Amino acid sequence: MQGIQNPTEVATRDGHISWSSPQEPWLIRLNEHFDHGIADERRLHLASLNLTALQWQATIVSGRNCTGIYPLGKGGYNTVFVLEMEGGPDLIARLGLFLWNFVPTLKFSPEETNHRFLCEVGTLAYVRKQTTIPVPQVYHHDVDPNNAVGARYMIMEMIAGPHMGYGWMKISPEARRTLLTEIVGWERQLLNIRFPMSGSIVDEDGTIGPMCLSSRLTSNLRAPHTGPFASSAEYIAGHCRSTQDKYKEQLARGDAGRYTAYAVEWLSLALEGIMGLPEDDGAPVFTFFHDEFGMGHIHVSPTDPTKLIGLIGWEGSHVCPVWDHRNYCIVDVDMFNKVQAEVMDSAEM
């Protein structure tokens, strides 16, 4: 195996970084917006990363030389880089580094964010094994923030195409309908899988562990109320207890709202009622939901916007009661709802 021949990342103390440059038009568009909204403190953190070590790790796990690296985008909890690989195809590196002015990860412990990260690795492996949904393969991951790179990261397959919104307005209504029909088919594959309890997937066999943090919902379950849950009553009670703990902390800090103390008492009464409910009639139905099933995570071919090539953004996805449908597909709502009803009605769930 050859070593890195052309590491293209150079970081200086003032936070300046030089990168290699993307070639594809859709990549250039994303890359051009990367610097927007990055605070100086976050820029210095970015400059402190050892991206040469990241390139070297990509070389090791792929058996091919990593010749360059450039930023692709920044999301709610991660920063994404493209790793240019000799002979192609390129790879993706997702680092647990938030670059906006507001840092949401400060609200969560390293244990919580690491658990969500590892659940995503397990979820991707499970979905690849159990469905035909095209999702990226994870080749390597490391949750230690003190590793050689300087941040939690994963190296994964690159879904090489823009998200569906990139060409949505350029295709015909008939083509949009065809795309949505295929997407509903993906959703149905997930809904057809049944699990013995509610929580998060931790490995390729679908083992259910404690519920990880959602990447989108604000009503996160917090330890020690994260399950797994064997019934709907346990699931609802977990949310009540987690919310009650949050309100009690606000009262203790002195920054509670006017009705917070009342809410704590109300939740206590709700818990008494929930735990006094009779057992479910029949087995509870737990199924899997993608946490952010929307246009930004559905990718199409760079040469054909009517061809789906992958679904990304699985961080925070989890198994929950089938009635808790807060995690729905957000695309073209009116058309999607019509197509969804037709596809779902065409076969028994």
TrEMBL record:
Tell me the superkingdom of the source.
Answer: Eukaryota
- Which SUPFAM superfamilies does the annotation name? Protein kinase-like (PK-like)
| Secretion signal, residue range per the UniProt entry | none
Q: What is this protein called?
A: Aminoglycoside phosphotransferase domain-containing protein
Source organism lineage?
Eukaryota, Fungi, Dikarya, Basidiomycota, Agaricomycotina
